[in-house]
Design a protein that fits this description.
With about 500 residues, the protein is of the alpha+beta class. About 30% of the residues lie in helices and about 25% in strands. The protein has 4 domains: about 90 residues, Nucleotidyltransferase, domain 5, CATH 3.30.420; about 170 residues, OB fold (Dihydrolipoamide Acetyltransferase, E2P) (Beta Barrel); about 120 residues, Aminopeptidase; about 70 residues, Hypothetical Protein Ychn, Chain: A, CATH 3.40.1260. Strands 4, 5, 6, 7, 8 and 13 form a 6-stranded antiparallel β-sheet that branches. A 6-stranded mixed β-sheet has the order 16-17-18-19-21-20, with helices on one face. Helix 8 packs parallel to helix 9 and helix 11 crosses helix 12. The longest helix has 23 residues.
């Protein structure tokens, strides 16, 4: 089986799916009315400085002001080179209310929070990230071989020196995709980012804040730039227009992948053909089944995500410890996949089934780390806590799949649970008692859902009769078909 990327382009949204060995691993969604902002550059205006937090809010023309921390500021010296600040720097020395500031989005708005900003500006290309205000050349930490890192650094220095008379060269970060790349591979990237930055500088000079001065490419174009790796054998696109634009881009900036692009003209939706739609539906569920019969329970909150591992129907063939170990081993691989697929970020607590054997614990952590190595997003595991929990973090740069595709339930308000019919009946009894004391009328009409009325007339009928005697009045009931289980009204009647 080969690794491939599926691109579904529609009038309202674009979706990318990364499939590894026939299994869906990552999904990226961009909707026309709510595109992501990461990578966009804005000319903004400082609206509030917060000395206590060493941060500021910046109006960039979005619904909510963006947020910038002092460590993400980069004032420049007389030569135009960035000065790096730290947590101890006083933000009041660098920002004031009403000041214009050029910033770039590094985290999309999430929930009630505005976009996270930086003034360390950069422009991304196929192999390189260009930083106009530094002279530094860095190498992706995922390229581990020291000799390869040195070779890549020398290649970038060699090529950028050719442009020093024509452009203010700046600095570069060599991306993971550039491993084994040559000077010729970089040759298309450098003039590309220089031209883009020249346009950005011109817009910064002639644009009134707040306004966007640079927008990143659409999702299907970023596929070529960000997701392509040597092991990707095919990129299948179901839109002829998008396919042609991707071919044109590849011809100029990544000719080696042009042959990997393929237009999918089939009538059956491409995500249906590869089973992506069903996997997306499963990725929104709390419970994730394991092949062994065990399962995961994934609970996402704004503060953190917890993942609980259970043996379920798996009873094993030898002993309890071996059963637990095998379930945890399978769960470690499944967890790494679910984090990527659901794009879960922030603090994550993993509750594996308790293991007595320390070697088993080490193997579980090694398996988890090995599977997380394939994740493009930075992760960090702190080890096993005293309570036997594995604590980890995954960098949050955009909304999770659940946050993007779902909204809080209007019935339970996001709790994920409804009060039982029994609880609602007892609430109704208490409310009738309150109103009987407050008003002269002792006759009531209860409007509620079918399940609640059925319980009042059946299991709770004796309690209803006792209540009528107590208030010396009558209680009538009426089913309201549009009411949900927790909804009811009590009306005074004559």
């Amino acid at each position: 089986m080969s690794d491939e990327i599926l691109v579904n382009v529609g009038p309202t949204e674009t979706r990318d799916a990364l499939v590894e060995n026939g299994v869906l691993q990552e999904v990226y969604i961009e909707r026309v009315h709510s595109k992501g902002y990461v990578g966009n550059i804005y000319k903004g205006k400082v609206v509030r400085v917060l000395p206590g937090m060493q941060a500021a809010f910046v109006d960039i023309g979005q619904e909510r002001a963006g947020f910038i921390h002092v460590a993400d500021l980069s004032p420049r010296d007389e030569n135009g080179v960035e000065i790096r600040l730290n947590e101890q720097s006083d933000i009041r020395n660098y920002l004031r209310q009403g000041q214009e500031l050029v910033v770039q989005v590094i985290k999309d708005p999430i929930s009630t929070k505005g976009a996270r900003l930086t003034s360390h500006l950069s422009i991304s290309a196929r192999y390189l990230v260009y930083m106009p205000y530094t002279a530094h050349v860095g190498i992706s930490a995922r390229i581990e071989d020291d000799s390869e890192r040195e070779r890549l650094k020398n290649a970038v220095h060699e090529l950028s020196a050719e442009y020093k008379d024509e452009y203010n060269v700046g600095g570069f970060i060599v991306r993971t995709a550039a491993e084994s790349a040559t000077v010729e591979d970089f040759r298309a990237d450098i003039p590309f980012v220089f031209r883009v930055w020249g346009d950005v500088e011109e817009k910064i000079k002639n644009t009134q804040a707040p306004a966007v001065v640079y927008e990143d490419m659409p999702l299907y174009m970023r596929t070529i730039r960000d997701l392509m790796r040597p092991n990707i054998e095919k990129v299948r696109i179901d839109s002829r227009e998008a396919f042609q634009r991707m071919q044109s881009f590849a011809k100029h900036y990544a000719p080696e992948i042009g042959s990997k692009l393929e237009h999918y003209p089939g009538e059956r939706p491409i995500f249906d053909l590869y089973g992506v739609e069903s996997e997306l539906s499963k990725a929104l569920e709390v419970k994730v089944g394991l092949k062994s019969g065990g399962y995961l329970l994934i609970e996402q909150t704004e503060a953190m995500t917890t993942i609980d591992v259970n043996t379920g129907a798996f009873v094993g063939h030898r002993n309890l410890e071996e059963t637990i170990f095998k379930t945890n081993l399978e769960a470690a691989s499944a967890i790494a996949r679910q984090l990527r697929l659901r794009n879960i970020g922030g603090i994550i607590i993993l509750d594996f089934i308790d293991m007595l054997d320390e070697e088993h614990q080490r193997q579980i952590l090694r398996t988890l780390e090995k599977n997380l190595d394939r994740d493009r997003v930075k992760t960090s595991i702190t080890g096993v806590s005293e309570l036997g929990l594995v604590e980890m973090t995954r960098k949050r740069t955009s909304e999770s799949l659940t946050q993007m595709l779902c909204e809080p339930c209007p019935v339970c308000q996001g709790r994920g649970k409804l009060k039982s019919a029994e609880s609602i009946c007892y609430e109704i009894f208490r409310e009738i008692l309150r109103e009987s004391r407050a008003y002269e009328s002792k006759n009531f009409m209860v409007l509620a859902s079918q399940v609640v009325i059925d319980r009042l007339l059946d299991e709770e009928s004796a309690n209803v009769a006792d209540l009528e005697l107590f208030i010396e009045g009558t209680i009538r009931f009426q089913v309201e078909g549009i009411y949900h289980q927790e909804q009811y009204d009590i009306i005074l009647s004559q």
